[in-house]
Request: fold
Amino acid sequence: MLHKLPWFLSSLFVLGNAIALPAEDWLQFRGKDASSLAPHADPPIEFSSASKKNVAWKVDLPGRSAGGAIVVGNQVIATSSQGLDQRRIYITSVDSDTGKRVWQQSFVARGRPFTHPYSSNAAPTPASDGQRIFAFYSSNDLVCLDLQGQLVWYRSLASEFPKAGNDNGMSSSPLVVDGVVVVQIECQGDSFAAGVDAVSGELLWRVDRPRKINWSSPAPITRTDGSQLVVLTSGEDVTGLVARTGEAAFKYDKGSGKIPSTLAWQGKLLIASNGLTVLDCQASDASPKKLWDNNKLEPGNCSPIVFDDAVVLIKGGVLSVGDLADGSLRYKLRLPDAGSIWSTPVVCQDRLYVFTDKGRCFVVQLGKTSAEVIATNEIDDTILGSPAVSGDALFLRGDRTLWKIAKK
Amino acid sequence: MFSISQIVMSHLLHPAVKTVHYRVGITHTAIICGLFAFSPIFSLADEIDSAIETLQKIEANNVGNQKAISAVQILQTAQTNSLFRVLEGMKGASPIGKNYLSGAAGSLYLRDRDSLRSQLEAFLDDKQQDGESRYLVFQWLTENRNELREQMLDRMLDDPSLELRFDAVAQTLKKLEKETEPAPLKRLLDSARHPDQIEAISKLLKVAGQPVDQAQVFGFLMQWQTIGPFDNVDQKHFNTVYDVEKKLVANDFDPKAKYRGKTSEVAWQEYISDDPAGIVDLAKVYDNEKGAIAYARAVFVAKQSVDVEFRLGCINANKLWVNGKSVLMNEVYHSGMSIDQYIGHVKLNQGENVVVLKICQNEQTETWAQRWQFQLRVSDATGKAILAQNR
Reply:
């Protein structure tokens, strides 16, 4: 049809398609580049589970999770665990448009499935390389499915390394870098990080890690020579490994918080150390150098975010915004009656979406010198994982449910 | 890209896969016909059985994983009525193999959810089949069918599948939340195997005026002899074999013996737990000593020689020996504690069996890191208590 249209109409048609950007995938914890940013997304500012305002759909999932969902094409993927000691683990695909289940697979956890009652065996957020899904659990079961839900490979890392695990629950999410699924399993027993080939499921490398409990997730960084690294932080160190080989690329001998994950942003590392520490990590031939630290800019449970030229942090219901260049505090904003916040927020355009564990969402307009809460929304659910963003929708993993927040 | 048998199967058996292979071209149809003509022993059934066998043997250390990946692809592209052979194959498979077979079964089911229903019901009814495969089938059959799920679970209170039994007890427990008659609660207690459920039913029975001896229902060991504290400063002595340990493991026990402890001479003392959860509180016995080790000894008199499980809950680093044989070893401090946290398999001797525990406390100062305690019970493989004759 297109070739029969007058040239200017054809151009408009093409232009129109270019403007209506396809919904972007959200392939892992914190989305693209693990940045928590969705600059083109425009989700609703106001929504409510009670009135169903801007709730496009809500679906039940087979069990609980403390992680987030991911979006691959038109599939929203979430993991769950339930039943006897939370041993039954699930991966569920839901159609992002309709909320209907596309497929579901279930397995039995072979590692230790025990967690604090607040958490869940399905605490880590799954990851994808766009062709496969990698579901990881506190029990250290790692399952790879294709996009039709067929099993590609499976590894029980707790069977291979039997002392891996922690009975308060693990929650580090997997990360796919350079065709390698990287998992960070840090505990008092078999404590290690491993790289598993995304296609074959082969263990490419395994490195010992400090034998202390750690819940933070790996972060991706590309250095000036193009090498793709994965950054692991613990209470004792910040270590960069070549994702493909597990070779050490750098080490910084100061520890970081055990819950928030590091943000790698344009050659800089933002780590939860002495408040917030920013390291220059760009040069491929040098160890990271401290640029600044500021103990008034402390991340709580949430991972740091960089928006424009500012660092954005949440701790104890207080939003702190600092200058990325020098670490100076720009402003703080108290979020009223926030309670506990575990879910790392997301930034859509210039709006920060902050979810509390009780399902309250503060929508905060971020400015250079101040910020304003422009909406406070209530979702009747427990929200512990970070939202996924795709198109103009937020996908929330509730306790036993999945929500799509979008204009209907 | 495809094995011959996969192509054969896709042509002969599964229309969905056919569409993919049409891209390969029509000439392979002739090749397949030729293969059949010249290879009478060629058998799809054999290939499926071989794939199942490969998956059944996958070991915990992941040896054979590459073969498993090929095998699971063969099964997932097979005719959907192969589903039942895959489900049956879960019986006797290794734990890793079961998950591979479960994935293959899930994929086959996804391709044909409706036509297999009556056969799936028959499979679920067959209690000789593997419990995990039956639970998988149960989930498929009851998806979006809450009424059917409820009816089925009502019949599964004594199911050999622990997962099905757990769900069945949970359902009945919910119904009996406000029950004041002890009889139905007692019946439910007989069915329950999971600690959380046993605990919940025991509480309801107490409210209903018929308290049970919860420690007996669980089968906790209540009578102990303990000795300590020995040095564990800087968590250095988890693997140190103190004299007392050497003697205990060799079953050379003298209740009057004294040893050099952390700061002074130490001797055996009796500890009888009166806790409904069988807790042995070493912090209380040893005045909240930190960086310390205590040993505990008990004798379990068994009616007969029998395979049992020793189920330990412990918030500290621990080692367990039964009759001198190492059963459990966990160098983990303050990372949660629950009933049945660690499970070890033991064949009890008829008569006396000597149980020895080494429980190590570290020096963490946080308020949540002060406990130094354990609870130990003996059960069958389903979690049902096995009581000592000398209880």
In short: Chain A touches chain B through 42 residues (CB under 8 Å). Confidence is low (pLDDT under 50) at residues 1-19 of chain A. Helices of chain A lie at 7-19, 157-160.
